[in-house]
From TrEMBL:
Residues 4-248 form the CN hydrolase domain. The gene is ramA. This is (R)-stereoselective amidase. Signal peptide: none annotated. The keyword Cell wall biogenesis/degradation does not apply. It comes from Thermovenabulum gondwanense.
Length: 294
């Protein structure tokens, strides 16, 4: 990894107005470039529509774009214009009717589309099988950028330490978490810090603000966490930009500003013999109010 600057752009998408939201993404990306000259700019989950469509799946399927498509063409132009890498979360039209992925596309100024991550852990309300609209992805890619190896998790994905660990075992140095998260700030902060500290990676969590078409209101508070769980930046509950310069040598000391050397590595120090059952199907020991299957 090389030293680089990342921006999290916390915006309120206009529900289901893709043209408007593409314009807003461009506006805020240009503002981020002018203020902080970032190498990487990250937007919230479903930034082109908002999270909840609040329309029949067939109608929503016809509203959105495939990848590549018109939206990504505009984002490729933007990336090239700004000479910055972009993570643009958007619903993706699948090849089969009514197959919609909750995706994030990684775009480079010279490369164009580098790759796509499709959300693998769908929040219960969005699952197509339960009356929602999204189909889960099946892969956890790590993207090679000139300055880092990048993993992507989307919102509810961040509740699963297994996914973050999978990305890190594959080489990720930075994980971004575009989100439209409604649960408490405590859970948001806890899971962001835990995923960073569990794996000694940088964690860039960018949440939406404002309402979606389902009248859900998102609280923002995007944050950038370093590999020893120190918060480098945090947004408020409004549209704004956060940024941080990421040090390529971040775990020399056990806490920020201290002289005590770091002598452990959570990834290398795993006792793999203990985890033989981790891939078995199971459930928590307590019953939620309702179980919604995939």
């Amino acid at each position: 990894m090389k030293e680089f600057t990342v921006c999290g752009v916390q915006i309120a998408p206009k529900p289901n107005d893709i043209s408007y939201n593409v314009g807003k993404i461009k506006e805020w990306a240009k503002k981020a470039k002018k203020l902080h000259n970032p190498d990487l700019i990250v937007f919230p989950e479903s930034a082109t529509t908002g999270f909840t469509p609040n329309m029949p799946i067939s109608e929503f399927y016809n509203l959105i774009d495939p990848i590549p498509g018109k939206v990504t063409e505009e984002m490729e132009k933007l990336s090239k214009e700004l000479d910055a890498y972009l993570v643009v979360p958007m619903y993706e039209k699948g090849e089969q009717p009514n197959v919609v992925y909750n995706s994030a596309v990684v775009i480079g100024p010279s490369e164009g589309i580098i790759g796509i991550y499709r959300k693998t852990h769908l929040f219960p309300t969005e699952r197509l099988s339960a009356g929602g609209w999204s189909t889960p992805g099946k892969e956890a890619p790590v993207f090679e950028l000139p300055f880092c190896k990048l993993g992507v998790m989307i919102c509810y994905d961040g509740d699963f330490p297994e996914l973050a660990r999978e990305l890190v075992v594959k080489g990720a140095e930075v994980i971004v978490r575009p989100s439209a998260l409604l649960r408490s700030f405590d859970i948001w902060e806890l899971t962001n810090k835990a995923r960073a500290y569990d794996n000694h990676v940088y964690f860039v969590a960018v949440n939406a603000v404002g309402p979606d078409a389902g009248n859900n209101f998102y609280f923002g508070h995007s944050m950038i966490i370093n590999p020893i769980a120190q918060k480098l930046a945090q947004a408020r509950g409004t549209e704004e930009i956060i940024y941080a310069k990421l040090d390529p040598d971040p775990i020399k000391y056990v806490t920020y500003g201290a002289s005590t050397p770091m002598i452990f590595d959570h990834v290398e120090d795993r006792n793999l013999e203990v985890y033989k059952n981790i891939m078995k199907k199971s459930k928590c020991p307590f019953e939620p109010a309702k179980r919604i299957p995939y």
